[in-house]
Specification:
Layout (H helix, E strand, L loop, with lengths): L1 H10 L2 H6 L2 H23 L11 E3 L5 E4 L18 H11 L11 H14 L9 H9 L6 H17 L2 H11 L9 H9 L8 H9 L13 H17 L5 H9 L14 H10 L5 E3 L4 H18 L6 E8 L5 E5 L19 E2 L6 H11 L7 E4 L18 E4 H6 L3 H11 L1 H10 L3 H5 L15 E2 H12 L3 E2 L14 E2 L3 H11 L21 E6 L5 E7 L3 E8 L11 H17 L15 E6 L13 E6 L12 E6 L6 E2 L10 E6 L3 H9 L24 E2 L7 E4 L7 E3 L1 E2 L7 E5 L2 E6 L5 E3 L4 E9 L4 E10 L1
Parallel strand pairs: 1-3, 21-28
Antiparallel strand pairs: 1-2, 4-5, 4-14, 6-9, 7-8, 10-11, 12-13, 13-14, 15-16, 17-18, 17-19, 20-23, 22-26, 24-25, 24-27, 27-28
Length: 784
């Protein structure tokens, strides 16, 4: 009541009479009612501008790589505020709406002028649409009627309330039509001038400014001469009104117009599609690629595939990673994106393939960090059997004793499986999962010792990023895909010492995976690299790195078809070298090979790689990690008590009181003895044990190694397969006897393997030696 009383008193006061004189009182009331009415309409009919922009992908240096049609099949590239140059802003505003920054969406003076001219002349001769009103019409296209004009006014007022002037100008620049399916100045600039809006000249800006008013008569590429005439008319008008300097106008008037409809850029199609899918909320994607490097790499890979097609190797992929900032600078998903016959649109960079031998460096690096081995550690490369799994080398040959560094340089399979058995399968899987190998993480429960040889699935990008971690001292981080990305948190995969030892091994040029044609060539880059070939020769890999870059290459067929000529060394490595020479040929810096402070050297026995003993005659320098690497004393030889004629050996149980002597003998595992025997290699044989000893040691029993007790074997009924029988026996055994289901099968020398054709069901297999010792196993065979 008090407030109402106050209002009545205020209405009778002189102040009220001054503020609301009778002549304006109804105007104020009308304006208030109009404001309330507008607010009500604003609530009932909110402005929700939805613009479907074309997605564009640009390189790190701003060069356009690829563009996609909008959802409504328009070329409608979004011009960012930063791309609106001062020249573009001045030209558009002066031509379309001089008072753009001064009115509130509608220009009353222009409306009155247009109404006067229209009534005076009896027809529409002068429009009154502001840029804001044009934006309203472009957002909601409708027929030009007085009712729709009022709708435009209403929407223009809403735009002015909700957006800044620069944002409204941005709407206009992005929506202005250029005929056909082209909308927006950025689309027109790209399609007709091959430029971004920020790089347009005054003449080009003026050309694009006049076309939307007369798109049918001013068609770029068709009516260029007439367009130049109209452009120059507006340029002279700009000069007369002082919009630009006289010198700038003269230059613009002399500029020829060679515009014609061009194609949108089509570089890095696989990368661009991937970025569009990965960042669906972004329309202007500023990627990490380097445009010039990408162009070179695409051409190199395309030419490479043209050459290999005659061998039925129809595709290849490559990725280049900058080791300093982890940015992906080159991404080639296939030899030809538009090759529909051989699956050119398949993205080989992210396709899951078998990695062959390319995981071996990380396996050896893990063993270095666990202290199990060092580069000079000696390991045997002879046939082995792990519960029925019998790995073989790529060339089906064996090398006997080899050092770890030689095993890695030669990419031997059996030593790698042995090392994996030592470091533990789960620990190696954990390392690869920490390196973001997603398929391995999914399949970890299915993994076995074949993982060392590529019995898994990885992607080229994952594999290359693992090698980039080697280039960064063992520190792993995610790849950078966008220009604004920063390096993510680093995770240590391997120590700097382990990566240094691996890098030294993989920079050697005396290795079998150096292509023969390049063995003495000066084009071999100074890099560390590793090759891989998957089972069945379906995938060829070559991954290399130096201080600056890591480059990964895959070659093969997306169909999975194997090719006899397909190997990492002969097919993938030449492509790797060509890419390195094109991208980082000038890099001759080997300082990145400097050994870390925590790494040290020591003398080891050349026969074992262990700490030398008194009997070790040959010694070599070896790297090791203090307080981590093993400190085993060499035992490649041992003292044995033998008879005076050195024909029998004694143990402590049977050694005579006199007549025995102590002699050094080489120690060999049963598998190495078997290898020597099968290949007729001379070695220092230990004499048989005293036949009168009478002591039967458990480890002297025959041990069947080719098959595992209580295991089930699934065989193809259409492809009759024999099972192999082999065993290890004591050194004094000269003959062994095989029995199948308690029936004699065959007698052979201990080092000879035999095979038999199994039947379905349970099978008992027995092996007896010539000393009467016997071992049995039972297996189950099923056919499918």
């Amino acid at each position: 009541m008090c407030r109402l009383h106050f209002w009545h008193r205020f209405q009778k006061s002189k102040l009220f009479a001054f503020l609301f004189p009778p002549s304006f009182r109804y105007l104020w009331y009308g304006m208030g009612i109009a404001a309330v009415f507008f607010l009500l309409l604003h609530i009932l009919f909110p402005l929700r501008p939805h613009i479907s922009h074309s997605v564009s992908v640009a390189a790190a240096d701003g060069v356009p790589l690829y563009a996609f049609l909008s959802d409504d099949d328009k070329w409608r590239l979004k011009t960012e505020l930063s791309e609106i140059s001062t020249t573009l802003r001045k030209a558009l505003i002066h031509k379309e709406d001089k008072y753009f920054y001064y009115h509130f969406g509608i220009n009353p003076v222009a409306i009155l002028r247009a109404a006067f001219n229209n009534m005076l002349l009896g027809k529409r001769s002068s429009g009154a649409s502001t840029i804001t009103m044009q934006v309203a019409r472009l957002l909601e296209p409708k027929q030009r009627t007085y009712t729709n004009k009022l709708r435009e006014v209403f929407r223009a007022l809403q735009l002015e309330i909700l957006y800044s002037k620069d944002e409204i100008l941005q709407f206009y620049i992005n929506l202005v039509p250029y005929g056909s399916n082209i909308e927006g100045i950025k689309s027109a600039a790209a399609l007709y001038f091959g430029k971004s809006p920020a790089l347009l000249s005054i003449a080009e800006i003026t050309t694009l400014a006049i076309i939307p008013n007369r798109p049918s008569s001013l068609r770029l590429g068709d009516n260029n001469a007439y367009i130049v005439q109209e452009r120059n008319r507006w340029l002279r008008r700009f000069a007369a009104e002082g919009v630009f300097t006289a010198a700038a106008i003269e230059t613009a008037l002399a500029e020829p117009l060679n515009a014609r409809r061009q194609s949108m850029p089509r570089q890095a199609p696989h990368y661009s599609r991937r970025m569009k899918e990965a960042f669906p909320q972004m329309v202007n994607i500023h990627g990490s690629l380097r445009a010039e490097q990408q162009r070179k790499a695409e051409q190199i890979v395309q030419n490479f595939v043209r050459r290999t097609k005659r061998m039925h190797i129809n595709n290849a992929a490559a990725i280049v990673i900058n080791n300093r900032n982890k940015a992906v600078e080159v991404y080639v998903g296939s030899g030809d994106f538009f090759d529909t016959i051989d699956g050119g649109q398949v993205d080989g960079v992210k396709a899951v393939r078998s990695p062959g031998s390319t995981l071996k460096p990380f396996l050896y690096g893990l063993a270095f960090d666990k202290g199990i081995i060092t580069p000079k550690t000696i390991i045997s490369d002879v046939p082995v059997n792990y519960s029925g799994y019998m790995p073989a080398n790529f060339d089906k040959q064996y090398n006997g004793y080899v050092s770890v560094e030689k095993a890695l340089a030669l990419s031997l399979n059996i030593p790698a499986v042995k090392v994996l058995n030592e470091v533990q399968l789960n620990d190696f899987i954990d390392l690869l999962v920490n390196g973001q190998c997603r398929q391995i993480e999914r399949d970890r429960k299915k993994m076995g010792l074949s993982l060392a040889l590529g019995g898994c699935g990885v992607r080229l990008e994952e594999l290359s990023n693992l090698y980039a971690a080697l280039a960064r001292g063992g520190q792993f981080s995610r790849l950078k895909w966008l220009q604004g990305d920063s390096i993510s948190r680093e995770v240590p995969l391997l120590s700097a010492s382990a990566t240094y030892m691996l890098t030294r091994i993989m920079t050697q040029l005396q290795r079998p995976d150096l292509p023969a044609a390049l063995a003495s060539s000066s084009t071999v880059p100074r890099i560390a690299w590793k090759t891989g070939t998957s089972y069945g020769r379906r995938d060829a890999w070559s991954i290399g790195y130096n201080k600056n870059y890591t480059i990964g290459v895959w070659a093969g067929n997306f169909s999975g078809e194997g090719v006899a000529e397909l190997t990492g060394a002969d097919i993938a490595t030449p492509l790797l070298f060509e890419l390195f020479n094109a991208i980082d040929k000038a890099s001759l810096d080997n300082k990145w090979l400097a050994a870390p402070l925590e790494l040290d050297e020591r003398w080891v026995c050349a026969q074992s790689g262990d700490i030398p003993n008194d009997f070790c005659e040959q010694r070599v320098l070896d790297y090791y990690i203090p307080a981590v690497s093993h400190v085993r004393t060499c035992r490649h030889r041992e003292y044995v008590w033998v008879s005076a004629d050195e024909k029998i050996t004694y143990c402590t149980s049977c050694m005579p009181a006199e007549g025995a002597k102590r002699i050094l003998y080489d120690r060999h595992t049963p598998e190495m003895i078997r290898y020597f025997e099968e290949n007729h290699i001379n070695y220092q044989q230990l004499p048989p044990h005293n036949p009168d000893c009478g002591r039967l040691l458990a480890n002297q029993l025959p041990s069947i190694t080719s098959l595992q007790n209580h295991s089930e074997y699934l065989l193809d009924s259409n492809d009759l397969q024999d099972l192999m029988l082999s065993c290890t026996v004591a050194n004094d055994v000269e003959r062994i006897f095989w029995f199948i289901d308690d029936k004699f099968y065959k007698a052979v020398a201990p080092q000879v393997s035999v095979s038999f054709t199994p039947h379905a069901g349970n099978i008992k297999i027995s092996c007896a030696d010539d000393k009467g010792r016997n071992s049995d196993i039972v297996i189950k065979v099923q056919f499918f």
